């Protein structure tokens, strides 16, 4: 599995290093020894996301990374610069990052340090399990006189970066090897080592609990399903005066491979469908980071795991199942399987009576039509809670955009034979009818939000920030959300 490089902060540059990174802004502040005349001639303007390599002292390579306009820097500027630096430095074993200490006039060192380390970890990531070995970035020293504040931010950022890398590994692992049982084992081991409570349910326990949706989707597979529950209990104080702490539930779609089932996808359509566990991966990876981040809220996670296969006993279009909350569903398209397993998971999560539930799911192609591959769709039933999520996403540098849950579309889910059918009337507004379907499995009045990450969980292009494959989208937003979470106001 991918190792995140060591990242430490030091006031003095270490003597042994392979490359030196400098972060440059367009105002040319803090740039000792940089030949701006040369950079002007080659047209390097220090714009965000750009870099050049130039010779340094002796054998050293200098990597100059752009921060953009000094007046416009945000934590995300450092996240992006970190990713560019680590990606450019990937072929070196050790790099120094000269931190522009003057930027502490503009931003909190803690926030900058965290974002920089998140970026460094992300840029250094590669999914190399099935690659013959290559040189990897192992050691990063951030050279700065900002001290404790910057370094505590950097350490937090590294923990977050590790969680993102874990989520990306889970998403990138092929459907044939990341079976529900194998994935559950990997996660359970990591979660136990982190000090979380782990409850792993096998097919018998799942049936006994009445999770009809998970069983229905699993019917076409030779691989048994799993249902993972993780719990995090803050040690010591919690934020509420009654000592209970706010309780947030996380739910993630864990389809280890989505062939569509009998409503089979095309070959092209299923090419990337190992990514259909992206929501579950983000939830599980974020959970494993909570102890190290010393989060003060109570957090529980619920992830149903199965593949969606067209085997001989696969559910047939027209079949009806009963979900964990007792509602019956007519399955007219077996490729709309995510909402079936989430129906059970949301209802199981609700049984614990958390203060709010958020689910993450690679749920619909329709959300990609609406928002593309860089913005996730947010739907919810509580303004305060959705606001907390938008704020967290903004801080984390992940884009979300709120979409409606229109009451007038609800009738598209009416079934002549069951309480609901699993698809809307036509393909228009497909992200919204999917959201409306999920809302049927959350009790009236319980704050809930749904993030459709079908577009954002996977990257087809090799950008500095992400690189091809699983992105780990949602991990950073979730971690910021749980840190700041407070019981949502009604409405
Ligand atoms: N996992 C897919 C959604 C998806 C599509 C994610 C493309 C990432 C990229 C989901 O299970 C699915 O197949 N949804 C269908 C729903 C439809 C049948 C109502 C879709 O979006 O086509
Ligand atoms: Mn599907
Ligand atoms: Zn799916």
From TrEMBL:
Which parts of the sequence bind Mn(2+) 1? 258, 335, 337
Q: Cellular component per GO?
A: cytoplasm
Subcellular location per UniProt equals:
Cytoplasm
Q: Which residues are involved in binding Mn(2+) 2?
A: 253, 258, 276, 337
Fetch the InterPro entries from UniProt: Leucine_aapep/pepB, Macro_dom-like, Peptidase_M17_C, Peptidase_M17_leu_NH2_pept, Peptidase_M17_N
Ranges where the Cytosol aminopeptidase domain occurs: 333-340
Say which enzyme class the record assigns. hydrolase
- Cofactor(s) needed: Mn(2+)
**Which family, according to UniProt?**
Belongs to the peptidase M17 family.
The protein depicted here goes by the name Probable cytosol aminopeptidase
Q: Report the source organism.
A: Candidatus Neomicrothrix parvicella RN1
């Amino acid at each position: 599995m991918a190792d995140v490089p060591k990242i430490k902060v030091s006031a003095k540059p270490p003597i042994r290093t392979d490359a030196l990174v400098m972060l440059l802004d367009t105002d040319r502040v803090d740039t000792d020894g940089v030949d701006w005349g040369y950079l002007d001639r080659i047209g390097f303007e220090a714009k965000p996301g750009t870099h050049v390599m130039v010779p340094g002292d002796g054998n050293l390579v200098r990597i100059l990374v752009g921060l953009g306009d000094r007046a416009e820097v945000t934590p995300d500027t450092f996240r992006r610069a970190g990713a560019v630096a680590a990606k450019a430095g990937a072929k070196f074993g050790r790099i120094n990052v000269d931190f522009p200490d003057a930027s502490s006039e503009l931003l909190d060192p803690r926030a900058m340090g965290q974002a920089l380390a998140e970026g460094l970890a992300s840029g250094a990531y590669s999914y190399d399990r099935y690659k013959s070995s290559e040189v990897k970035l192992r050691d990063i020293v951030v050279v700065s006189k900002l001290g404790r504040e910057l370094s505590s931010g950097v350490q937090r950022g590294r923990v977050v970066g590790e969680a993102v890398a874990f989520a990306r590994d889970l998403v990138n692992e092929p459907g044939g090897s990341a079976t529900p049982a194998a994935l559950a084992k990997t996660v359970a081991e990591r979660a136990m080592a982190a000090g979380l409570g782990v409850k792993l349910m096998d097919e018998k326990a799942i049936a006994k609990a009445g999770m009809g949706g998970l069983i229905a989707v699993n019917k076409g597979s030779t691989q048994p399903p799993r249902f993972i529950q993780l719990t995090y209990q803050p040690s010591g104080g919690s934020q509420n005066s009654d000592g209970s702490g706010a309780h947030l539930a996380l739910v993630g779609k864990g389809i280890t491979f989505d062939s569509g089932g009998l409503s089979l996808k095309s070959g092209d359509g299923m090419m990337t469908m190992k990514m259909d566990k992206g929501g579950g991966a983000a939830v599980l990876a974020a959970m494993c980071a909570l102890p190290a981040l010393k989060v003060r809220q109570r957090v529980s996670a619920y992830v149903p795991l199965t593949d969606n296969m067209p085997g001989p006993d696969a559910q047939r279009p027209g079949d009806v199942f009963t979900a964990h909350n007792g509602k019956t569903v007519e399955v007219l398209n077996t490729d709309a399987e995510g909402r079936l397993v989430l129906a059970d998971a949301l209802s199981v999560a609700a049984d614990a009576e958390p203060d709010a539930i958020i689910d993450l799911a690679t749920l619909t192609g329709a959300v990609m039509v609406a928002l593309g591959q860089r913005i996730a769709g947010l739907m919810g039933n509580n303004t305060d809670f959705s606001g907390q999520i938008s704020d967290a996403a903004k801080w984390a540098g992940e884009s979300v955009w709120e979409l409606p849950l229109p009451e007038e579309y609800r009738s598209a889910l009416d079934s002549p034979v069951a309480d609901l059918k699993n698809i809307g009337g036509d393909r228009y507004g497909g992200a919204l009818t999917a959201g409306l379907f999920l809302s049927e499995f959350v009790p009236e009045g319980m704050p809930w939000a749904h993030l459709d990450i079908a577009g954002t969980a996977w990257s087809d292009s090799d950008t500095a920030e992400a690189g091809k494959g699983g992105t780990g989208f949602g991990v950073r937003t979730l971690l910021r959300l749980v840190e700041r979470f407070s019981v949502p106001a009604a409405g």
